[in-house]
Design a protein that fits this description.
The protein has about 300 residues and is an all-alpha fold. It is about 50% helix and about 0% strand. It contains nine helices and two strands. The chain has a two-stranded antiparallel ribbon. Helix 5 runs antiparallel to helix 7. The longest helix has 29 residues.
Amino acid sequence: LEEDDELIRRSKEHGKAVAEAIWVFSTTDKVGHNGHLNPFPKAVNAQGCEWVPTDPQVADKGLYSQWGEVRRFGLSRSDLDALVAPYGCDSDKNSLIYAQAYETYVLTNQARSNPKGEMEHISEFWSDDRVGWTFSPPARLVAVADQIVEKERFNLEKTCVMYAQLSMALSDAAVIAWYNKYKFNVERPITYIQRVIDPKFTIPWLGFTPPFPAYPSGHSTFAFSGVGIIEAFVGSSYPFTDFCHQNRTDFLGTPRSFNSLRDLAIENAFSRLPLGVHYRMDFDSGNFCGILCARKVLQLPWKK
């Protein structure tokens, strides 16, 4: 028993020393360290039909417009530019961007026309936008991991490795997503739809469009990066039921079941279309960026 007590004492000291070293290292990231204290650091000047802020409270500033400069774990500098350019802002009805905006418009109206139906359930279940109401998008993937760790009774070593990889992949996901958001500066669907399709178009349920450009989708990037890590521990065909919102009374929190974690990521990413805040191309590009983040983190030298 005395040896066990000594082992616990030394383990605590080692843990504190590691935590202190990580904290000191984090302070050398000039952009990432304490970046939350100034979430709207600079103005973003739109040209032509580029993104314009949809939140009048922040005027011409975009949320975390500097985040593409944050330190990365697995991604290289060239990885940030691996994403292909999005469709342009052509207002012609035969253009690709018109087709994408029209899909969002139709899905949103379908969801709006069936209150409390499946589309609303999906939209609210994955909304993860409203502070104090639901998770943040990356934290949602941590909550998914929490359920799996408990269900599968992971041992301590496996749990620590998974959370380390998951956290690093989600961090890189934020960097690559926000780097490309402000690189391409794609306007949100509400702006395009109101200008080209329906000037009376509004956002249901959520009530607002997040204050940053559309492409790629942050939800999609976080979902696929997180799932890409978790799959490495449970397999690509792992069935999962998400109980994150069970017993909620302010919206339908009924658990949702999936044949695989990839199906979960797909629904998470898709949910942004009937909510009216993203195009299909945002979903697809987030898929690419998220999987890239997961693969790069998994390729790091985790064992000596």
